[in-house]
Amino acid sequence: MIIQKAIVSLFGTGYIKPFSASWGSLAAGIFLFFFWPGLSIEIKLAIIFLTFILGVVLSDQIEKNGRVHDPHFIVIDELVGMMITCLFLPALWWQWVAGFVLFRIFDVAKLWPASVYDKKTGGFAVMTDDVLMAFLSLSTLEVVLYVIG
């Protein structure tokens, strides 16, 4: 279980308190900034899909073994959320900061239907609420970037 916890906590980032999800999102954003813009859309989508599946499986195991719903240290969902939010961004720091801020706002707000998944147990629910808010963050970010030109 040590390896699983290391992976889902992004190698311990999820244990930073307070606001472990924000720390996970920040660590993910900084990590992704350096290579994500250079990857093709096909590679990005494959990585997102595989990371999502890994997150579902490991989060499910950890929830069942620990008998705890969505433990705070699981932040692999934030990694997938940042991957989606920053899907089309170039390596411009201010756009990544905007993506981080939007993702954190929407992730905390947990608008419908993410709020439904947030109350459910299991790895799929743990991952899906963040994925839904990431798509909202991506959409909002792209509209804002288009408007400001």
Straight-line distance between termini: 47 Å
Count of the domains: 1
Helix-and-strand structural type: mainly alpha
- The sequence of SSEs as H and E is HHHHHHH
Instruction: Kindly state the number of beta strands.
Output: 0
What's the story with the biggest beta sheet? Answer: none
Instruction: Kindly provide the radius of gyration, computed on alpha-carbon positions and rounded to a whole number of angstroms.
Output: 15 Å
Low-confidence runs of at least 5 consecutive residues: none
Oligomer: single chain
Binned, the helix content reads over 70%
How would the global form be characterised?
A: globular
Strand percent estimate? under 5%
Average predicted local confidence, pLDDT: 96
Count of individual helical segments: 7
